[in-house]
Amino acid sequence: MSSETLLLIGRETAHTPEVFETHADRLARRGVVEEVFTTTYESEPVRELRSQLREIPGDRVYAIPMCVAHTFDTVRDLPAALSFVSGSVQYCEPIGRMPAVTDVIVERATEQVRAGSEVSLVLVGFGSSSKPYHRQMVEYHAARLEEGTEYGEVLACYLVQDPAVECIGYELSNDRAVAVPLFLSRCEATKHRIPEQLESDGIAYAEPFGTHPRITDAIHAELEKQRALADDGSFSFEDRLTATRRPVATDGEGPE
């Protein structure tokens, strides 16, 4: 009988170990697969993780990038690093575009300001100057929140693309507003850069998603989705990434 493993993998910050391990422990207790592992890297996934990844057990390994949307790392370097896993890798989509994440946004926002027609909800994403993934994730939640909550308006802004977070105060139609950073873990941007830029506009500020139980549910849902796709023989965008991205031997990173 084949065995399955879940791997939660992502870039390391001061708070990611706590966040990753909390979700991993919950999923292990649920018995979703035989084993659950976490691993992080600082800047070079292939160089830093290849030895660890060779030791990951399981005939099928579900690798979930622990971020809210695809990044340069997750579409290039992580798929290459996962080639060192001995089992069959089912590379998963980041968890940002999950209904459970919308629930977390609502809870984080209402912890600060109760929803109402006189209150604006601001979603703060990282953004990208060249890739659409973060904008698509933010727009997904904005559409759901506009339809399913009582906030008077839902606005989106970003750190590295327009509309910029430092300008969002000029777009508000209401005197009261709350901003939710669409980030998995606390980092320099969520602790300092974003709140400092919003403070002058009097916008209340919520916490990132962190260890919220509904994020565990989102990870579990992505696992089940990928399990169904694998059993059905479907071929996803993430499958294409792991099929085409490989370490280059001339760079000293290829298979030994």
Question: Can you put this structure into words, describing what you see?
Answer:
Helix content is 41%, strand content 18%. It has two domains: 4-96 and 212-251, 3-Layer(aba) Sandwich (Rossmann fold), CATH 3.40.50; 99-205, 3-Layer(aba) Sandwich (Rossmann fold), CATH 3.40.50. It has helices spanning 16-30, 45-54, 72-81, 99-112, 133-148, 188-199, 213-232, 237-244; strands at 4-11, 35-41, 60-65, 88-91, 119-125, 153-158, 176-181, 204-205. Helix 1 (16-30) packs across helix 7, helix 2 (45-54) runs parallel beside helix 3 and helix 3 packs across helix 8 (237-244). The mean pLDDT is 94. Keywords: Lyase, Metal-binding. GO terms for molecular function: lyase activity; metal ion binding.
The fold-level CATH name of the largest domain is Rossmann fold
Strand order of the largest sheet: 2-1-3-4
Q: What proportion of the residues form beta strands (DSSP E)? A: 15-25%
Question: Given this structure, which CATH class of the largest domain is correct?
Answer: Alpha Beta
Q: What is the residue-mean pLDDT, rounded to a whole number?
A: 94
* CATH architecture classification name of the largest domain: 3-Layer(aba) Sandwich
Which regions have little confidence, pLDDT < 50, spanning 5+ residues? Answer: none
Rounded to the nearest angstrom, the radius of gyration is 19 Å
SSE order, one letter for each helix or strand: EHEHEHEHEHEEHEHH
Classification by helices and strands: alpha/beta
Topology, number of strands: 8
Largest β sheet strand count, sense and barrel closure? 4 strands, parallel
Cα-to-Cα separation, first versus last residue = 30 Å
Contiguous helical run count? 8
Shape verdict: elongated
Number of domain units: 2
Share of helical residues: 40-55%
Keywords: Lyase, Metal-binding
Organism: Halocatena salina
Protein name: Sirohydrochlorin chelatase
GO molecular function, one term: metal ion binding
